[in-house]
Amino acid sequence: MDVPGIVSIVIATAGAAAQGAGVPPAVVEQAANVADAAVTVVQEQLPAEWIEQLDQQFPEAFVGPPAPPPGKVDGSTTPPAFETTPAPAAVVPPMVGIPGVSAPVTLTFDPRFPRNLDLSRAVVEQAMWAIGLPYQWGGGTLTGPSLGDGSGGAVAGFDCSALVRFAYYVASRGKIVLPRTSQEQFRAGKQITIDQAQPGDLLFGNWQADGANHVAMYLGDNTMIEAPQSGQLVQISAVRSDMIAARFL
């Protein structure tokens, strides 16, 4: 069985559906038939070929985002490049292209809060790779989407905490491993005020007795990227009033 091919079929189906494209019935049927097998595809480690590609592409340090896993939702295997506009001090406004979104997202960093800007941009870019994939309860591993409990359909996806965990892990080349749940992630981060939040920081909300039951990634300008809930897709949303920021970068 060609397991990598199975994953490509499942994710390609997600991309087509997310962007309103017609999906051939045969592809839908095949994706549904092999969905269970796709769960075993993604391993909890970065494949050697990814590391080799990253080392060739960025030999010194991060100068842009790492390549996403094979089977990107728009059919390519590399993310859109940043277009960086010169700016004073530590303010770096790269333009991030998003499949299916006409206007790029501008990331602006406040020089009062020093950080690894290249890594921050890479974390955001990696999260944006997942836009259009479905929310799957329990879905997502360190290295890519998975089916979870399958409540989001026969297409691999992420839940909220798995999305940000994946973005941090792949963008840092395996050096940053966040806890699995939103509650654990909030306790592990350094809490900051919302006005100190920078692109790549995490935002926590949906507070219940056990703590934060939702996490998203801040983009700036009162926006964030999130895997919202069952029945929805990974998307860019407005920051909600109950959210508290925490920093890992």
Keywords:
six-stranded antiparallel beta sheet, 28% helix, globular, three-stranded antiparallel beta sheet, 18% strand, Papain-like_cys_pep_sf, alpha+beta, 249 residues
Structure at a glance:
This protein has seven helices and nine strands, in the order ααααβββαααββββββ.
Verbal overview:
With 249 residues, this protein is of the alpha+beta class. It has one domain (3-177). 28% of the residues lie in helices and 18% in strands. The chain has seven helices and nine strands, in the order ααααβββαααββββββ. It has helices at 3-18, 25-33, 35-38, 48-57, 117-128, 160-171, 182-188, and strands at 83-84, 94-98, 101-106, 190-192, 202-208, 211-220, 223-226, 235-238, 244-247. It has a six-stranded antiparallel β-sheet with strand order 4-9-5-6-7-8. Strands 1-2-3 form a three-stranded antiparallel β-sheet, covered by helices on one side. A hairpin with an 8-residue loop joins strand 7 (223-226) and strand 8 (235-238). It is globular, with a radius of gyration of 17 Å. The N and C termini lie far apart (40 Å). This is C40 family peptidase. Residues 117-249 form the NlpC/P60 domain. Belongs to the peptidase C40 family. Pfam families: NLPC_P60 (PF00877). InterPro entries: NLP_P60_dom, Papain-like_cys_pep_sf, PG_Endopeptidase_C40.
